[in-house]
Amino acid sequence: MRTCAGCRERLSQSELIRLRYVKNRVAIVRPGDGTTGRSVYLCPSEGCWHRALKRGRLTFKSAKRDRTVVHLEPREREQLLLRLKGYTREQDSLN
């Protein structure tokens, strides 16, 4: 079970979109890629994305409870929203 950073609802990991902070950028993690590390989870709802990004920062946590706070510039937020939209469209077409 994981918690959506937007609505704070607890859902199974497979129902959420996983974001990781990799090489100074926020990346969407594809299911089954086997990566570990600090992550943020979001519902596939666009409203949750906006709530999570409203303050312009994401807090990436690991199982060890340490945190990395990433501050996003307005342009970075908009780019992430576009990538999330593309990702959900791609996932919908696979199902």
CATH topology: Hypothetical Cytosolic Protein, Chain: A
Strand arrangement within the widest β-sheet reads: 4-3-5
Based on CA atoms alone, the radius of gyration comes out at: 13 Å
The CATH architecture name reads 2-Layer Sandwich
Can you summarize the main beta sheet? 3 strands, antiparallel
Q: Which CATH class? A: Alpha Beta
Which term fits the overall shape?
Answer: globular
The count of domains is 1
Distance between the termini: 22 Å
Number of strands: 7
Portion of residues within helices: 25-40%
Q: How do the SSEs run, as a string of H and E?
A: EEEEEHEEH
Q: pLDDT below 50 for ≥5 consecutive residues: which ranges? A: none
The secondary structure category is alpha+beta
Mean pLDDT: 89
Quickly count the helices.
Answer: 2
- What is the beta-strand fraction? 25-35%
What's the structural blueprint in terms of helices and strands?
Elements: E1 2-3, E2 10-11, E3 17-22, E4 25-29, E5 39-42, H1 46-53, E6 57-61, E7 67-71, H2 74-94
Antiparallel strand pairs: 1-2, 3-4, 3-5, 6-7
Provide a descriptive summary of the structure in words:
This protein is α+β, with helices and mostly antiparallel strands and 95 residues long. The chain has one domain: 2-Layer Sandwich (Hypothetical Cytosolic Protein, Chain: A), CATH 3.30.1230. The protein is 31% helix and 31% strand. It has a three-stranded antiparallel beta sheet, covered by helices on one side. The protein has a two-stranded antiparallel ribbon with strand order 1-2. It has a two-stranded antiparallel sheet with strand order 6-7. A hairpin with a 6-residue loop joins strand 1 and strand 2. Helix 1 runs antiparallel to helix 2. The radius of gyration is 13 Å and the shape is globular. The two termini are 22 Å apart. The mean pLDDT is 89.
